[in-house]
Each structure stands twice: as structure tokens, then as C-alpha cells.
Amino acid sequence: MNDLAPLLTPEGRALLDEVRDTDPAHELAVATRLRRDHPAELVSAALGQARLRQRAVAKFGAEDAARMFFTPNGVEQSTRRSVAAYRAERLRAAGVRSVADLCCGIGGDAIALARAGIRVLAVDRDPQTAAAARANAEALGLAGLIEVREADVTEVDTSGYDAVFVDPARRSSKRGRIFDPEAYSPPLSWAVSTALGASRAAALKIAPGIPHEAVPAEAEAEWISDGGDVKEAVLWFGTAPGTIRATLLPGPHTLVSRGLPDPEVRPVGRYLYEPDGAVVRSHLVAEVAETLNGGLIDPTIAYVTTDTLTPTPYATAYEITDRLPFNLKKLKALLREREVGVLTVKKRGSAVEPEELRRKALPKPHGTASVTVFLTRVAGAPTMLLGHPVR
Fold this sequence. Notes:
By secondary structure, the protein is of the alpha/beta class. It is built from twelve helices and 18 strands. It has helices at residues 10-19, 27-34, 40-65, 72-77, 81-93, 108-115, 127-139, 188-196, 277-281, 285-292, 328-337, 354-361, and strands at residues 98-102, 119-124, 146-150, 163-166, 171-172, 176-177, 201-206, 220-226, 229-237, 244-249, 253-256, 271-275, 295-296, 304-306, 315-325, 340-347, 369-378, 381-389. It has a nine-stranded mixed β-sheet, with helices on both faces. A seven-stranded mixed β-sheet has the order 13-14-12-15-18-17-16. The longest helix is centred in the first third of the chain and has 26 residues, at 40-65.
């Protein structure tokens, strides 16, 4: 499964086509049948690759995923196509025509860059990962723009490229997810030094949980969400040092920091706004509150409240119908009275787990009505706010 070479042969490609839509529940029967005419290892590799391609559809779309080659880590760690395309477009718009893509993985970002018309040197030190990136460039007809090199990125000369893109490894086989930027592979300090040496621009992909104080003064920091899920943060060099922004996809919709003070705290109004995760991570809740003419329900909670409804791409609006002190018995009675059958639980500033509350408050549906309950704090007090999203 880890050796792509047999799958790149005519026999391997034909086998991949044959097992493309195999249901995992039927794999054993399919494998038994195919092993009558093909080597067992090749059959196992083809079925393994088919599973990876099925998982990759969520990131790359069905058409690309069906032609690409993956490693298990590559599926998990590669950039979602929409995010990679957005970042590639930013580089293209900045006049970048060539990029050294360091720690390229299976080539997701290199593909997006090449599709934006940018020439790419894609580098990864893992042989199988580099082989997957090379196979993907060929499979998608981009081999003329993507050169794949198996090498240690710290030893690669990037001086002949307009820009550098670095996606350091943030997971370890022994420790799992890595939170210390200096424990990335390569370390963030090395990536920043390399970025500062780029002739035109540079972008460093980092974990969205990076502390703001760890952002270098020379960098612009951008947090990106896709469909409401925060996907990554990017440090940009050669753009606008010191700028903080949140970008929401699809769109894109971009909110830039104006250095506003924290919003005032005010009583819960008719509407509650839940800012997008990228807005929260980038500390731009004040900018959203200002556009809504709203305030916070608590100085430590990123919920904005107003009495007026204002459309915004940066937050989801809910109309609040009830405000209760935290009390499970009262909540159960209210849900029963209103014949609630669908309960959505959200929380900020509460230790209660949403699934636990959902199970206890609504052990069985009482009807067809739906309610959203926010477990939070209002002026420091544990509170339940009930409402529904504004369509």
C-alpha cells in the first residue's frame, strides 16, 4: 500500500479503475476474486488506494480524487482544495510566477499553484510522499509546471524562485499533534528565516491555535475558515506586516483588524451573533460587533448581542426567545412543553459537554419543533439562551 510504483503500471492502473467504487463492506469478496488473476500485494495496494481516494473526495472533489494518489498521512494533512486555491490566487495577484513549495506532501498546494499558472518546485524528504506528489502532477496534467524533488528542505536553494511556501509537519508519530511551533518539522524559526529571504513573497502554513504573540513582527497573519470550519492560519511575508485578517470561504470574505478596543458588555438583546471561528481565532470580534452595532454578553465570551438584525458573512444570527439560569430540570420542562424534537447545543464558557446535555435534556423527542440552546455566561453567571437561527 505504501509503494506506489506497482499502481503506476498499466496493470495497476487498470486494477485501480476496477476497484474504484468498491464498498468497504465488500472488500474481502472483491479481493478474493481479484487475487485469482493479480498478485495479492497489488490487489491489496489497489484496494487501499481506493479507500484513500474515497476519503480524499471531501478535500479534493470527486474528479481530482479519482485520479490522484495518496498516502494515509497525505489525506489527513493535505490542504483542502478551496483553501489552496485561495492562497495560490493571493500569490498570483502579488505577481508571483514561481514558488518553492517546501514540505509539499502529496502536492495539494503545488497543484493549486500550478493551476494558477505558477511554476513550482515541490520538495519533500519522504520518498513515498514525493512519489505521490510526482504521480499527482502527472495525473492532473501539471507535470510541465511542477518539478518534484525528494530532498531535505533545509538544504534546498530557493534563490531562483519568486516566493517560498512552507508547510511544516505539525504531527509526530510518537506525540501526535504538535503545539509548540519550534517543535514543527522544520521549526517555525527556520521557516521564518527562509521566508524573510524570499525575493517577492512567502507564506507559512501554521496551526490556527498559534498564540498571537508568536506571530513575527514582519508577518501578516491570516486565519482561514471554509464552510464555517477553521482550517489553518497563514503567515504572509512581503505583503502587509502587522496586519491581522480573517478570511471566510467560500467567498472569499475578508475582515481586517482595525485595532478596535474590546466591545462593551450589554444585556442580551433580541439577537445573538456567533462569530465565525476564523474571526474568533484572529481576535476580530470587536470588528464584527462594530459592524453590527452590538456588544458582548460577557467580557470573556465571543457572542455578540443586538436588538436589530444586520446581515453579515462573519457571524451567524440567532433570534433569542428565552434566557434561563442554568437548570436542567427547567430546560427539560420547557422542551417538553414546546414539543421539541430537534435540540442543537452550543457552548462558550461552559464546562458542560453539549452531547451530555442533549442526552439528559431530550432523552426522546417530544415533537417536531427545533431549538438551539447556548450554554454560556452572561455577565459572569452560567446561563442558557434558547433560540433559533435566522434564515
